Amino acid sequence: MAKNGKTGFYVGIDLGGTNMQIGVVSSDLKLLSQAKRKTKAEDGVDGVMSRIVEGIVEACGEAKVKLTDLEAIGLAAPGAVDPNEGVVLEAGNLRWTNVNAASILQKKTGVKTYLDNDVNAAVWGENKLGAGKNAKHLLGVWLGTGIGGGLILNGELYYGPLLTAGEIGHMIAIPFNPPGERSLEHNCSRTSVVNRLVKLIKANRKSKLTEYAEGDLEKIKSKLVAKAYEEKDELTVEVLDNAAELLGITLGGVVTLLSIDRIVLGGGLTEAMGSNWVSLVEQQTRKFAFPERCKQVKVVASTLEDKAGLIGAAMIAMERHEK
Description:
Blueprint: E1 9-15, E2 19-26, E3 31-38, H1 44-63, E4 70-77, E5 80-82, E6 87-91, E7 96-99, H2 101-109, E8 113-117, H3 118-129, E9 138-143, E10 147-153, E11 156-157, H4 184-188, H5 190-202, H6 208-212, H7 222-230, H8 234-258, E12 262-266, H9 268-273, H10 275-288, E13 298-301, H11 308-322
Parallel strand pairs: 1-4, 4-8, 9-12, 12-13
Antiparallel strand pairs: 1-2, 2-3, 5-6, 6-7, 9-10, 10-11
């Protein structure tokens, strides 16, 4: 038992468009257990919430912590959220609009629940324990099913007056593309990169990916893409280098706007592609940053990887619960 009668146990939930990560975190920021589930957004809000509760129960059981012993739950969700009201305003990957996520989960568990954006949580975790440690100003960009972002300015998470700051994935990267192909997310997320590779292979472009996937293009995932890139497969290099350039152009613009000196990249695509690809994004970011001193910006990969969001979510719950 922690001081003041508190148990010191919190749950952090990183809810993604494809997967969810759930963990029990102690007050000294140690991850005691972790559970994983597929999100299955097609099952609707109730289906997703039921899987979250299953994951919480599993993680608590592994950590030997009772649900009633939890101080608070931190839910980190993709898309635009209102953290004050606990509402997911719009999450395209989940197909949620104005969902009272914190209230729903709190009713299901009986534990006080706090909501934030998934990359806000991840970048907060990285800022305290990972690749962004001790950075007073930090941008986090997570490339997975979609693209999310989180900002730390002057040592604090920056929400903006409308509370939705950081939605970098929805910035327009190529304005004259057809609708549905214009944003950064449409062009640089893991989903879009894989879809583009499959589309080009179906258009008779040659690629080692066909061999790696044994002719089943549905099998093309991040790991196979990373393998083909490492083997210098011409098509894969073309698509991934193009994504790195587009991402760098956008990040260079953010650096120019905010004069920020560190960026952390995370998410499934970053984790699969590794340091060489992250270095290419850094080169492109520096190329498009202005003025000259802004070209010193460092672009680094997440070190907490898939634990960043759940640890950050637990930390946010801990901090808000104690206020």
